[in-house]
Amino acid sequence: MHIQEVFNAIYSNHCYEYFIINKDYQVVEYSDKVFEYCDTQTGNDIFEFIPELYGLDNEFEEIFNGKKEVYKIPIVSKNNKYINIYIYPGREEIAQYKNYETLIILLEDITTIATTKQKLIQEKNENTLLLQEISIKNKQLELYNNKMQELVREEIKKNLEQQKMIELQARYSQMGEIIGMITHQWKQPLNAISMMANVLMLKQQNDSLDKKILEEKLDDIIMQVKYMSQTVNDFQYFFNPIKDKMYFNIFDSIQSVLDLVKSEYFHKNITVFLDGDKSVQAVGLPNEVNQVILSLLKNSKDEFIKNPHSNMWIKIYITSKDDKAIIEVSDNAGGIPEDIIDKIFDIYVTTKQDGSGIGLNISKSMIEEHMNGEMYVENIENGAKFTIILPTTMDN
Predict the structure, then answer these.
(1) Are 387 and 373 in contact (CB under 8 A)?
(2) Closest residue by Cα to residue 171 from 292, 52, 310, 296
(3) Could you report how far apart the first and last alpha carbons of the chain are, in Å?
(4) Strand-strand pairing, 312-321 and 270-276
(5) Domains with residue ranges and CATH for the chain
(6) What's the pLDDT tens digit per position in 328-365?
(7) Residue of 383, 370, 224 whose CA lies nearest to 299
């Protein structure tokens, strides 16, 4: 038996199976499970069991003659397994030292190691490909980001230009509306001037014009002209662009707006109240605040026109708290539908059938972005209340 020689060859490793062959390449002994790695289980010739040994006659001879201690065929695939094949010297011939009458064909099962290596190599290749792909994607992403940043910059520029255009359109719309109001207001003083001029002309023709009547009528005409002149001055101030923030008296600034439009609201039976602390000063752009006030007044007026009633009013109340100026604009025009009140400042959201939905959006932008203030709305009994909060110092 060759037990000792086999143990010496495999070092008691359970991953090994073996054949013992003689010089005629005939199998003389084998381990129990060795045929798991063979192409056939019948015959005696080692080449039938392991065809991979064909053509190795010289190597066999060198080992038989003691010229080579081992020969290895690495990583052979057999029956879905991987093995290393080793050829070792077997039993020495008695008659001659270092000459062997048998050889040990040792089969080392390396399936686990081989598959692990394959997996590691595959993972490495996949990781390499993944890293390459990531690198390519990163470059593509960088190019995409650069492109997107450029597009964003262009869109921001377009949006700013569009916002300026919308604000300008809103400004022109307000200007046109106020011009209409002024035209309506001027009819009365113009009629009065015309009537006084006719009176003077008739008295002059009748030789009944005395100095006292002349002075009275001229004083009346001068008073009417001053009123009209003041209206023009208020109009010019209202639409004079002020780019830098400044301190201004809120009450006086809003009063100038009401002086321009009060006649329009009076003729529509809408009472406009301005009340509160007349001394409150704010920091901001007074003309833009006035535009916001005018926009809120117009929204209330439009709601009253849709749903008129006997006691229509708009109240503007001014106060201050914690270094903040507060303007509250409330009405009893029915309020804002609850399903849109949270979105009422979004662009293109409107309660009007023919509304553009940009007025309140522009107003909020003016207060919050241009003046670092706040603007919000809430429904009150029978109406709505808009609250505007402005800083009172330059560092707010």
Answers:
(1) no
(2) 292
(3) 102
(4) parallel
(5) 3-109 (3.30.450.20), 114-240 (1.10.287.130), 242-391 (3.30.565.10)
(6) 999 999 998 888 888 888 866 555 555 445 678 888 88
(7) 383
